[in-house]
Amino acid sequence: MASITFPTAGKSFLQSFPPATFKSNSEKVGPLLFERDNISYNKCCNRNLTAVNIATRLPVIVPPQPEKETSSERNLAAWTSIRQERWEGELTVEGEIPKWLSGTYLRNGPGLWHIENYNFRHLFDGYATLVRLHFENGRLIAGHRQIESDAYKAAKRNKKLCYREFSEVPKPDNFLSYVGELANLFSGASLTDNANTGVVKLGDGRVVCLTETIKGSIVIDHNTLETIGKFEYSDSLGGLIHSAHPIVTDLEFLTLLPDLINPGYLVVRMEPGSNERKVIGRVDCRGGPSPGWVHSFPVTEHYVVVPEMPLRYCAQNLLKAEPTPLYKFQWHPESKGFMHVMCKASGKIVASVEVPLFVTFHFINAYEVEDEDGRVTAVIADCCEHNSDTTILEKLKLQNLRSFSGEDVLPDARFIIPLDGSPSGKLEAALEPDHHGRGMDMCSINPAYLGKKYRYAYACGAKRPCNFPNTLTKLDLVEKTAKNWHDAGAIPSEPFFVARPGATEEDEGVVISMVSEKSGDGYALLLDGSTFEEIARAKFPYGLPYGLHGCWVPKS
Description:
This protein is mainly beta and 556 residues long. The protein contains five helices and 34 strands. A hairpin with a 6-residue loop joins strand 12 (218-220) and strand 13 (227-230). The two termini are 35 Å apart.
């Protein structure tokens, strides 16, 4: 994690449950009964957990074509294609789900990594699998369903890859089809709409799944997980890509649109109920032949922070038929790294500073620092930083994730990048990196503290040796400490914090995660947001693929 401190030019103002149902490709209910297994609990959990309800029966499962495995592979479902297209049912709960937890947690991520006998290369290539955990009155209904993007439907229909994914390119039948595919690339027609990265609830209640292509914005029904259709922007801003992680609140939707022709970024806002993005302002890049990758970005109460990373988009790599070492990007250390701060109200750039080279997927939060007279003197922006090491992309190839042999290969992650108010910034650690295992990512915070000074963050950390984050970690940025949850051999997904209604403390709530066990099974997990001890878990009928990011839809 890293914090970036920016000098600024002063403050600019601006239901009850229906009966459980089961769905599969064949719409048949099978004879299998999901029985609770004996579960061994982590030493950090000092609660005596008991079953409080009975799991429902499962449909017949028809697994896809098995993928080739090596003798060194662990039996993790995290990196294995989902067993079937859909499933829904009630789970047995071990422990006790708080009665106040009422709503739906949605998690999106790649979940199908093959077409027929062809296996994809990279974690980010997989077709999107949306998982639903619905909590009400201490009960838990779970389900999953594939997002029906054009890319996914075309692959099913034609039994082959039809759109360009993160590392995969359709194989042309002949030279003419190759030329046609290149023409479609320039127009954006061949880019994927596989919305496999995140899911957000807009201020008007619509739920949208997202990826980095603008066409990959897909509206879903959060109750049934049904794909409703494309989220069509009504403005004329155009472009092919945007940040995969917009900032979404009940009041606004903020995102960045990289300009690949005249290197820079448009900062845009969309109001609830609208599909029209309006430009706040533009940032011109200070270095490099193209904009830096902007997978995510942070905001404060009054500012948008625009990162310019030296890992930059590369049009030449996009045109190639086979993946390059950095896929759609190129590393340009000579172009340097920068951070820009834009006033939300005026669109004016109030700071633009050079920072040390950095590589990050995810920013966590940002906030303003005021002097004793209430004037903003700096901005702190926290992120998960990978030691400016671009090999993190190579580490996420499925072959590498599936073949861990005990060698510790997870890159270290620095924790804070502050910019001290001068034209150049510094790189500092917020706390001793060994507290979180020198490998941290996939963070969440209490959303009430978005853009404000905060104390706690929840993340995936590392218990070494490992080749992927394998713990859940609660970070205390005031006391400079961390608490860790670990299930040996398991891979937990992003910890998502849900605050208790009426809470008065920042960490008063629960943390939701989904865990892939080394046995091939998996379970939903609830931790107490304050003590970080386990309060409940519910075993899935089978292990689920590793998911990326989620959102909370409270019960109306």
